[in-house]
Amino acid sequence: MKKSLIFLFLVLLSFACNRVADNNSSKSVFKYNEASGISSLDPAFAVNQANIWGVNQLFNGLVQLNENLEPKACIAKSWNISDDGLTYTFNLRNDVYFHNNEAFNNGKGRTVIANDFVYSFNRLLDPKVASPGAWIFNNVFYHEIFDSVNISKNKIYSFKALNDSCFAITLKHPFPPFLGLLSMQYCSVLPHEAIEKYGKDFRRNPVGTGPFKFKMWKEGVKLIYLKNENYFEKSGDEQLPFLDAVSITFLIDKQSAFLEFVKGKIDFMSGIDASYKDELLTKRGLLNPKYKDKFKLISQPYLNTEYLGIMLDSSNLNFKNNPLVYKAIRQAINYGFDRKKMLRYLRNNIGTPGNYGMIPLGLPSFDSAKMFGYSYDPDKSRQLLAEAGFLDLASLPEITLTSNSEYLDLCKYIQHQLGEIGINIKINVNPPASLKELKAQAKLQFFRASWIADYADAENYLSLFYSKNFCPKGPNYTHFANKEFDKLYEDAQLQVNDSLRYIQYRKMSNLIMEESPVIILYYDRVLRFLQNNIYGLESNAMNLLTLKNVKKIQ
Description:
This protein is of the alpha+beta class. It has 3 domains: about 25-40 and about 210-295 and about 530-554, 3-Layer(aba) Sandwich (D-Maltodextrin-Binding Protein, domain 2); about 60-200, Dipeptide-binding Protein, domain 1; about 300-525, Roll (Dipeptide-binding Protein, domain 3), CATH 3.10.105. It is built from 15 helices and 23 strands. It has helices spanning about 1-20, 50-55, 115-125, 180, 190-200, 255-260, 275-280, 325-335, 340-345, 380-385, 410-420, 430-440, 460, 485-495, 500-515, and strands spanning about 30-35, 65, 70-75, 75-80, 85-90, 140-145, 150-155, 160-165, 165-170, 210-220, 220-225, 235, 240, 245-250, 270, 295-310, 350-355, 400-405, 425-430, 445-450, 520-530, 535, 550. Strands 15, 16, 17, 20 and 21 form a 5-stranded antiparallel beta sheet that branches. Strands 1-14-11-10 form a 4-stranded mixed beta sheet, covered by helices on one side. Strands 4-5-9-8 form a 4-stranded antiparallel beta sheet, covered by helices on one side. Strand 2 (about 65) and strand 3 form a beta hairpin. It is globular, with a radius of gyration of 25 Å. About 40% of the residues are buried. The model is unreliable at about 1-15 (pLDDT under 50).
């Protein structure tokens, strides 16, 4: 009886959810599936793509990125940066309102003012909130206040409301990518009234300023947003957004989601899964001709570098009989497999061979003509092995490569090709969570990894090799340490001229590839599949989903 009641409840809930989103056939409802699930709609926890996409429809920040990943106006209509590069002053719009919500006295959202940003940014830094995005403001200037009784101290950060429409931030050191950081969803503006009302439950009761407002969420089943009739942005003379609602489902099985897409019950898919890769794409990575009258494919470079990392810190691992201590061995691995062939046969040419270093296509500092990398050259690999003292390849110890099952086919391909030149690779498969933890604790000799840009600047990638960022405190998972690199990295932070800074970035990239703490596999691509009646969906190298300009033609 109890099971019957639960089943009836779920049926009724599903009916209600569909009715909320589709109660009028003339309403345009954009539907997509989020297989990985959404854990929070609080911008402070916009830590992965699923949460970021969910948050991005509900909230706004000071700035946003255009399709070329350049900062443009959002709630801040203009800004000024001081000559020393330390103080950023933002002039705010006066027509931005929080969504209507019972957290406000009259139930109607109020105007956003500068103090809302002071509150939101301080909340992001609050240890009690424990936001994974607090690092964004590591470079913000602060002073400390000491309590003479408790001998404690509080940090007062330089977030200042100069008046209701003027907000300022002061940094400790110049940091040219800072505007890009402010475009991240962590930096969304929040109303203190809603935080005070909902507390930790704000994660499922979000109140923002975005083009859509929260309606309902049955976790693991469906999430519904409705059009924000009071949204401040326009496209020409037309009010945004164009859609009436957004409906998000949470089918875990990607094959099932694909079938829903084929049936027209989902409007959009991102990325490709091995279970339907060959059905949707040709071997050249183009849309299968049989679907040309039904779907659209949007593809462009994605700021995601896939690589193999090598632990270089002998204090963290037993380096006895570890051939990776030799730079020549690391370089031999880099020369030892055909990236172009790997992409053609295993990924339908989705991506670009990683022959140019850590900085991916899609960033303005990328320049293939000026960046050193590796292409397939087995003879060079054998030469390097001999230089490292391994003329007798039987004496070369086995190397263990750790990956998860999703990338097992790539690892086996590399294992096979390296085996042909005498480098024996053993593959150790771990669950994704275990792999992530072992990598963060510097306990892996050789591991598969990827880096998706947090913000659109090459510094984000180069920070993985700065010696002060050793994991677990930072993202330097290889424990690469080089004084010349560190000097270039620190100097680049002071360089406000983009062209000169990009030259320094490329020098750093070339130095990394010469030392080879990583083996670059490929630079990924954004793949977006749409139903043919969807228009205006923007694509960008950050793979950020923005729905405010989307139109769905019935």
